[in-house]
Amino acid sequence: MTPPEPGQGTMCSTVVDDSSTTDRDEEPAVPSTTPNDRQARLAKMQAAQKGAERRRSALIIGVAAGLAIVLIGVVVTVIVRSEGERSVIEEQAAQDIEGVQEFADLTQTHVETPVEYAQLPPVGGDHLPQWQNCGFYDAPVTTEAGVHSLEHGAVWITYDPELPAADVVELQALSEDNSYLLVSPMADLPTPVVASAWGTQLQLDSVGDERLPVFLTKYIQGENTPELGAACSGGISATA
Questions:
Q1: Most buried by CB count within 10 Å: which residue of 85, 151, 175, 182?
Q2: Domain count across the chain
Q3: Which residues fall within 8 angstroms of residue 234, CB to CB, at 6 or more apart?
Q4: Does the pTM exceed 0.90?
């Protein structure tokens, strides 16, 4: 090995260990929050919640309004239809009703004994001093009391005891809508349903016969009533 020449310094390679300064991934700085920031976020959340509530309320109101409109339309339709049907019935009641039988020269004496009537069911004649209260009965009533109700302007619907239950319910509903309507079963009728007023009668094969409401309109408190305006309540409610 050749020694270094005089005056020539020795060269050294210096290796710097920079392991202590190796770049590290810097963590993102977490922004600091102030009370004002928190209040702003809270206000924003509350505003969003109120907006959602308003939208829900608007939806509910819209649905309710739509249903109300539909309901009003249905009610109006029903009313108009009912008025139209009533008008038709009244027009028909002003004319002769097909199938109505008329009977004249009927006596009106008050008696306490059974009466043998020429018609079944009867359309007038002697009768008890007490009248049968109008309404629905599921058992036969005293015939002589029912005749007295006819004298006061009631219509008496008698029905076959074997009439289908649904038809009986329909007759009951009719009696609830008419304070001068007497409804009761009677055996040995000529037809399943018979509507009688003083001096008049209509025999029907079914409750659904379109002539029945016309008969009621024409003869309840009709012009043939001997004692027009007399009560059909305050009498007797006992069955036979």
A1: 182
A2: 2
A3: 133
A4: no
Which residue reads 């040995």 in tokens? 188
Residue 94: C-alpha distances to residues 6, 80, 163, 222 (Å): 153, 21, 30, 11
- Do 196 and 122 share a structural domain? yes
Q: Are 128 and 145 in contact (CB under 8 A)?
A: yes
Q: Which helix or strand (DSSP H or E) is residue 135 part of?
A: strand 135-136
Residue 237 maps to a domain: no
| Same domain? 65 vs 121 | no
The full DSSP string for 96-108 is PPTT-EE------
- CA 122 to chain CA centroid, Å, is 37
Cα separation, 205 vs 210, in Å, equals 11
Are residues 223 and 124 in contact, defined by beta-carbon separation less than 8 angstroms? no
Distance CA 147, CA 198 (A): 8
Is the residue at 112 inside a domain? yes
SS3 state of residue 123? coil
Q: Average pLDDT for consecutive 10-residue bins of the chain (240 residues)?
A: 47 46 52 70 78 81 80 62 78 95 96 96 98 98 98 98 97 96 98 98 97 97 95 96
Residue 208: inside a domain, yes or no?
yes
Helices (H) and strands (E) in the chain — how many of each? 4, 6
21 lies in some domain = no
Quick one: 179 exposed, middle or buried, by C-beta within 10 A (0-12, 13-18, 19+)? Answer: middle
Residue 139 near residue 184 (C-beta atoms within 8 A): yes
Range of the domain at 189: 101-219
Instruction: Check which CATH number belongs to the domain holding 137 and give it.
Output: 3.40.30
